[in-house]
Design goal:
It is built from 9 helices and 14 strands. The chain has helices at residues 15-26, 46-59, 74-86, 98-107, 220-225, 235-250, 253-274, 304-313, 338-353, and strands at 4-5, 66-71, 90-95, 112-118, 140-143, 145-146, 151-152, 163-166, 183-187, 198-203, 278-280, 291-296, 316-317, 328-331. The strands form 4 sheets. Strands 2-10-9-8-5-3-4 form a 7-stranded mixed sheet, with helices on both faces. A 3-stranded antiparallel sheet has the order 11-12-14, covered by helices on one side. With 355 residues, the chain is an alpha/beta fold. Helices cover 34% and strands 17% of the residues. The structure holds pyridoxal-5'-phosphate.
Amino acid sequence: MKKYNFNAGPSILPREVIEKTAQACLDLNGIGLSLMEISHRSKDFQPIMDEAQSLLKELLDVPAGYEVVFLGGGASLQFCQVPYNYLEHKAAYLNTGTWAKKAMKEAKLFGEVVEVASSADKNYTYIPKDFEIPTDVDYFHFTSNNTIFGTEIRKDFDAKVPVICDMSSDILSRPVDVSKYALIYGGAQKNLSMAGVTFVIIKSDTLGKVSRQIPTMLDYRTHVDKGSMFNTPPVVPIYCALMNLRWVKEHGGVKEMERRALERSRILYDEIDRNKLFRGTVEPEDRSVMNICFVMSDEYKELEQDFLAYATSKGMVGIKGHRSVGGFRASCYNGMSKEGVEALVACMKDFEANH
Ligand SMILES: *Cc1c(COP(=O)(O)O)cnc(C)c1O
C-alpha cells in the first residue's frame, strides 16, 4: 500500500532526493568512496558546500551582504546562539507557541526579554495582530510557522530594529524578502533536508555588536569567515540539502512551492470546513499552509481513535496531533503531493459516509 507521509519532522522529502543521497553514501559521483568517508576539505566535497550555499541564496533571492552558513545543533541551539551574538540589553519576542517560548527562555539568560504579544490566552490558535515592535531593543524575534499549533505568519515585518526569524518549518515554501531580516535560521528536517544540519542566513554587518566574549564555536563570525568549514560540518545532511535545493529549483522555485502549498492546504481546509465530523483548530486567517491542525467536532469526539485507525489503514502516516493540541495534524511540506492530501480528504469523506 502506498504510504502518505504527514510527519511533522523529520518529515517527507522528495523520493529522488532520498535516492540520490543514498547513492552518494554508497559512491559519491563515481569516485569509489562514500560521501561519509572523504574529507570535508577535499575537492569532492567543497563544491557540494559551495553549491548548497549559493543555491539557497539563489532560491530565496538573498541580497548582497548576507551569508549562508550550515551549522550543527538544530534550531534549538539557535535559541541560545542568537541572543549570545545579538542581545546586549533587551530583545523583543512574539510568543506564538512552544518554539517561540523556548527561544524566549534561552534569551532570558542573556538580557531582558520583552514579550510584545502572546496568543497563550487561546492556546496559540491565532497570531496576535495589535502589537508594536519596540524601538529600544537589540532585535525582534518571531517564529514564522508554528509547527505545533498550525499558525503561520506569511509576511515579513517592517521594523526599525533588526528582525530575526525561526523559519524551521516554512523555509522554501514561499518567497521571503530577506532584506527585511538581520538573521533567518532553522533546523533542516522540516523542509530543507534530513536532520543534522541547521541553516542560518546572516546579514554580515549586523554581527559584532555585543560586548560579551563569545566562545569560538558559538560566534557566527567564525562560521561566516570559514565558510561553514571551521570544524567538520554535517556532510550527509548538507548533501541531502543540496539535492533538495536542486529539486526545488527544477520544480519552479519558491513561487511554485508556494502555489502548491496554497493548493494543498486549500483542498484540506475546505474539507475540514465542509465535513461535519471535523473542525479546524486555528483562526482561518492565521492557518498554516504547512501544518494543518484539526480535531473531531464536539459531537463526534469519541470517534477520534477510530478515524486515526481508519486513516492509518489507508496509508496515512503521522497525522496524530501534537499532545498540546490533540486531534490531528497533517504536515504538508514541499515533498507532499496534491495526491497525498486528496487521499487524506478521501479518508475523511469515506469516514463521514460511514458515520
Ligand atoms: C522543529 C522546530 C524547532 C526545533 O528544531 P531542532 O532542529 O529539533 O532543534 C524549532 N522551531 C521550529 C519552528 C520547529 O518547527
